[in-house]
């Protein structure tokens, strides 16, 4: 299984390919705010683990396995962002919070959060009740 660092790279590579049609070492380095040499080392590791195919100076292509994991990681990130919005976390901290927790949750926990998000999204009254609860709590401060 991929390490948290490998997951970060796969998630970013998948996103770049979806957005631009390709992902170069320089694009990945910029997106993750790391040195290109670090990206090259990780890309070689991801290649050895069959998540992508990398040819020096030619670029990289995600394998079927890499695409599947990349999509799953992007979806996990989006789900956790939505979950935090639903529970009233401010937009200013959502991204950092997701980055902090996404690698520490089991896939079973992610699935349960997905059900909870779905539960609230299916009925606006549920969302209103939840937000009313938050408002009551904050009005007592």
Structural description of this entry:
By secondary structure, the chain is mainly alpha-helical. Helices cover 73% and strands 6% of the residues. The protein contains seven helices and two strands, in the order H-H-H-E-E-H-H-H-H. It is elongated, with a radius of gyration of 18 Å.
Features:
single chain; about 140 residues; two-stranded antiparallel sheet; 7 helices; 2 strands
Strand order within the widest sheet?
Answer: 1-2
Described by strand count, sense and barrel closure, the largest sheet is: 2 strands, antiparallel
Number of strands: 2
Strand composition percent: 5-15%
Summary, kept brief:
The protein has helices at about 5-20, 25-30, 35-50, 65-85, 90-100, 105-120, 125-140, and strands at about 50-55, 60. It is mainly alpha-helical.
